[in-house]
Amino acid sequence: MIKEYKTIGEVVGPLMAVDRVSGVKYEELIEVRLQNGEIRQGQVLEIQEDKALVQIFEGTGGINLRESSVRFLGHPLELGVSEEMIGRVFDGLGRVKDGGSEIIAEKRMDINGEVINPMARDYPDEFIQTGISSIDHLNTLVRGQKLPIFSGSGLPHKELASQIARQAQVLDTEDDFAVVFAGIGITFEEAEYFMEDFRQTGAIDRSVVFMNLANDPAIERIATPRMALTAAEYLAYEKGMHVLVIMTDMTNYCEALREISAARREVPGRRGYPGYLYTNLSTLYERAGRLRGVKGSVTQIPILTMPEDDKTHPIPDLTGYITEGQIILSRELYKNGIQPPIDVLPSLSRLKDKGTGEGKTRKDHASTMNQLFSAYAQGKQAKELAVVLGESALSDVDKIYAKFAERFENEYLDQGYQTNRSIEETLDLGWDLLAMLPKVELKRISDALLEAFLPQGEDADEQTNR
């Protein structure tokens, strides 16, 4: 039986204490009826004997303690799910935001969900093509993986996110593919950018969009990624679709956690964030994966901005521990006009080896990836030496490596946000660049692959001897 209480004891920020309650459960949904008849929703955060601490999604401003009442609804926050969600836009609490008709839900699902049991997981090993060379070739995304993007303030992560949402696809399968996009605490301008891009390119037709804006209550940010993941799990595990979840910006989510923690007067951890930040993030990230015997999958690309470009900040640091790698955006490449400015050397995809090779991409994938990494690192080092010692101090081979690094950035990395390269085009471009180097320097590629794929032209050894 639903009970109604008029025993509101205290209001602090987004939190409210309700006294003399009974039978209340953790994460139970509540409704607050204000003195003017307005209804606001909230959720139980903590229970101590006959007292309940609740968070109000729409904020606590204007609540009269004596004349307002609280109803405990007996169930957690839920999302009504249906295949009709595809192509629609919702707010951070799952309410229709695009002006269209309400969704007729096939079922209602608890947004808190559960992380996947490790014994039920199937190993991620199928290639997802994003159309971006520096990801597909060098930091491959695999179906069921969680691969975050580490950005910085002012870097073009929104352009990269929309490009991935627009271009991503699973190759050699007729299974349906969908994108679930969650904007968490983003500005109105960013939201308009994403929606305009989705509509103009047609990406909206295969997308489910949740938008939580910066001027929405911070408390709503806690629910937004869970709403997105619940929709993704429904489409993946019940409808057999391959779902890519893009969440931006996870830094805003963590800031909301810190705000609530401070309001609850909890003892802060590193840099004021709650001590349970790692555990809380894991309840989101670990909802990605594949299940044995189930056709669908959930792949995650969470995007976060590193405060002061600091990789040791708690948010990127803990995210790196939980996820399977990271894509790092470089401010230096951005200043040089490289689009997208992905810094491939510190970036990493821990599952790339399982999603590449013959039958998945091409048999020369792994060898060319290793050779490009090595050559680019040597080229960067040669360019740094030239700055210190002068170009005349470089050997002939070092000069070739320096030119290679320059071409690599300008031709391979700098593809723009509208170019969609297939993995074959990316691999062929990699071979064109490697043809610059003397054959004796291609030590990471077998003779058979060199014979099959290396472009035939002027021998790079002749260039060295000039």
TrEMBL record:
Residues 355-452 form the ATP synthase A/B type C-terminal domain. It comes from the Bacteria. GO terms for biological process: proton motive force-driven plasma membrane ATP synthesis. The keyword Transport applies. Residues 10-74 form the ATPase F1/V1/A1 complex alpha/beta subunit N-terminal domain. Keywords: ATP synthesis, Hydrogen ion transport, Ion transport, Transport. One of its GO terms (molecular function) is ATP binding. Residues 131-349 form the ATPase F1/V1/A1 complex alpha/beta subunit nucleotide-binding domain. InterPro entries: ATP-synt_VA_C, ATPase_a/bsu_AS, ATPase_F1/V1/A1_a/bsu_N, ATPase_F1/V1/A1_a/bsu_nucl-bd, P-loop_NTPase, V-ATPase_su_B/beta. NCBIfam families: PRK04196.1. Belongs to the ATPase alpha/beta chains family. Produces ATP from ADP in the presence of a proton gradient across the membrane. The V-type beta chain is a regulatory subunit. This is V-type ATP synthase beta chain. It comes from Enterococcus gallinarum.
